[in-house]
Amino acid sequence: MLSPALTRWLFSQDNPSVRYLFARDLKQPRPSAATLKRYRGAILRWEPVQQLLGQQLEDGSFANPMPGFPAQTTYWALDLLARCGLDATDPPVALALARIKARHHVKGAFSYSGGGSGVLPCYVGVATRAVLALAGHDDPEGHAAIQWLVDHQRFDHKRSRAGGDKRWPYRSVESAYGGCWRSVSCYHGVVAALRAFTAIPPEHRSRAVQRRVKAALRYLEIHRVYRRTDTGKPISKHLTQFFFAGDYRSHLIDVLEGIAEADPTLIEQRWVRAAVDDVEALTDAGRVPLVKNYAKRLLDPLPFEPVGEPSRFLTLQWVRTKRRFGLV
Predict the structure, then answer these.
(1) Which of 152, 280, 131 has the alpha carbon at shortest distance from 215?
(2) Axis crossing angle, helix 121-135 with helix 72-83, rounded to the nearest 10
(3) Residues 6+ positions from 89 with CB-CB distance below 8 Å
């Protein structure tokens, strides 16, 4: 059970997005459809969302000053809009989705460039999860990106081998992607792929997706969720420095959310429970701190919540993850 104080804080009008998502997903008794519609209607009017949408161009994209990476900020924006509780029925979201589908959906994958060379597993996973959250698990382009991840994403750890059965389709730039798939596959790509797969409800996951989910979970088990196998130290310090916007990165709550969506019974395993306990140790009265953000080319600072303070967004994500594990 959540404490009354934490419930009141999450249900505050100060953050219309969290208020709506908390009411939709966690509040008991669940509010009426009319009430939920009213809560949701406040999201687009919320000043931080207006500031974000103020960066959107007429073609639906969000400008990026870095040459060669035109779609990067649009993916960030879509991820943020999904986290705020919006979806493809909202005109700004629909416009941005149409843009990336028309210009940056290459050979089945989401590219951060226009010509297809900007396809990286971590970006494909992050973008695919955002698209599925916004447009639904049966979205054609999202479904194609899932198939790309099934075909090409690998979950290797030294002598283990899992995933990526088909030939890498970008021969001219294959060498540039060696860092993604060495003897140990890039952690960011593995987690992003898992989170893309688990954005699909369990009953709609194909057998191929289920196999890839198991491969990703085995990789994470080897790493005890987020630790190096040789030293036991965290793979990266940012994993426990929680953020709202992370570009291609994931933090520990994201990873545990993906595990919970994949198989909530894994909370019975020591390697999962230890990571849950590590997150709990970093909270204060159940509230998760916002330590940093990685969206400087989109908006700096992001207007949603102040860095250094407890985050309603992150706390809601953590509560939902624990609910999936059956811990609250």
Answers:
(1) 152
(2) 40
(3) none
Q: What angle do CA 304, 308, 314 make, to 5 degrees?
A: 55
CB 175 within 8 A of CB 201: no
Dihedral, 294, 179, 167, 120 alpha carbons, nearest 10: 10
**How far apart (Å, rounded) are the C-alpha atoms in residues 42 and 36?**
10
What's the DSSP call for residue 160? B
Instruction: Please enumerate, as own/partner, the contacts of 40-45 that have beta carbons within 8 Å and a separation of 24 or more.
Output: 40/85, 42/16, 43/16, 43/17, 43/84, 43/85, 43/86, 44/86, 44/90, 45/16
| Alpha helix positions (H), the chain | 4-10, 16-25, 33-45, 47-53, 72-83, 91-103, 121-135, 140-152, 187-197, 207-222, 252-262, 270-281, 312-325
pTM of the model: 0.94
CB 106 within 8 A of CB 119: yes
Do residues 152 and 166 lie in contact, with contact meaning Cβ atoms separated by under 8 Å? yes
What are the tokens at 53? 């949408």
- For 283-328, the pLDDT digits (tens) are 999 999 999 999 778 888 999 999 999 999 999 999 999 999 999 9
Alpha-carbon distance of 17 to 4, in angstroms, equals 19
CATH number of 4-325: 1.50.10
Q: Pick from 182, 211, 65: which is nearest to 121 by CA? A: 182
To which residue do tokens 């969290």 refer? 18
Backbone phi, psi, residue 314, to 5°: -70, -35
